[in-house]
Amino acid sequence: MALSTKNILGTKELTKDDIQQILDTADSFKEISTRAIKKVPALRGKTIINLFFEPSTRTRTSFEIAGKRLSADVINISGSTSSTVKGENLIDTARNLEAMSPDIMVIRHHCSGAAELLSQFVDSPIINAGDGSHEHPSQALLDLLTIRSHKGDLEGLKVAIVGDINHSRVARSNIRAMQTMGMKVRVVGPPPLIPVEMERLGVEVSHNLTEAIKDVDVIMVLRIQLERQNQGLLSSLREYSNYFCLTSESLAHTRDDLLIIHPGPVNRGIEIALDVMEGPRSLILNQVTNGVAVRMALFYLLLGEKNANPN
Ligand code: CP
């Protein structure tokens, strides 16, 4: 069954069936990364362009690895080494890349809406690898895969998303995807970091970490985005940490089967204590592993599973 969308611009366009299919396909691809020869011919002859205008460790590398594990040809372009530094705009960049017949393009950009703009000017499918504070759909999908792998089912699970919701594309993509999958979402943080639209979205809001995490199945800790804190929303990082850093003490009254996730990169000791980050409930590196499988699934499903050979 094909996905209901040609592009992956955000989770708000994905149906429950789409998400289920992406997670099921990703599950079936996990095993490929455990083989001695980590490669299948599924996308042989296909060309993937990764266009990254913002720094990235996890997303960029895992999109590249995902393409290569499916035998596609993968080209990586950084904003800083592209002709955008000479003044070429994003639309002209996209059109010129399109003229070289890629089969799919992945884009990360600091401007919200950049992936959607690109999709209006090129024929090949576009995957949004993070646009400003708007969406980061592949991160939300790998988070769901990680949770589903440990809980079996997503329906009815309670999640607390803690931290800088205001600037977080990860939070926005997760809230939409989690609600689509029947999960209940609560956001937790100081008032200046919680956008007003949260309650309208049907999300519970809390400013008390210890209270907000008592009954949840999953805590998603967000990075304080130091590079986007130029509006003076936080008085100090120390004050933020005093109230909202996830520590062993704050976890004292939580469920025994609680899962802790974080999209990375982590500010150690600011939003999460070192012992919690490296403790038995933390799935942070498991999320990174699942990122490869989810991105393989996205390439495979968008590039026409009918023509591909997954073995
Ligand atoms: N989670 C995430 O997007 O990490 P990177 O910025 O390293 O890609």
Q: How many strand segments?
A: 9
Number of domains: 2
Enter the CATH topology name of the largest domain: Rossmann fold
Rounded radius of gyration (Å): 19 Å
Considering the protein shown, what is the CATH homologous superfamily of the largest domain?
Aspartate/ornithine carbamoyltransferase
What is the 3D form?
Answer: globular
The major pleated sheet works out as: 5 strands, parallel
The arrangement of helices and strands along the chain is HEHEHEHEHEHEHEHEHEHH
The helical percent reads: 25-40%
Structural class of the secondary elements? alpha/beta
Description:
The chain has 311 residues and is of the alpha/beta class. The chain folds into 2 domains: 11-135 and 290-304, Aspartate/ornithine carbamoyltransferase (Rossmann fold); 137-287, Aspartate/ornithine carbamoyltransferase (Rossmann fold, 3-Layer(aba) Sandwich). It has 11 helices and 9 strands. It has helices at 16-29, 58-69, 90-98, 114-121, 137-151, 169-180, 197-200, 209-212, 237-244, 274-277, 284-302, and strands at 47-52, 73-78, 104-109, 126-131, 158-162, 184-188, 204-206, 218-221, 259-261. The strands form 2 sheets. The chain has a 5-stranded parallel sheet with strand order 7-6-5-8-9. The protein has a 4-stranded parallel sheet with strand order 2-1-3-4, sandwiched between helices. The model has no long low-confidence stretch (mean pLDDT 95). The structure holds phosphoric acid mono(formamide)ester.
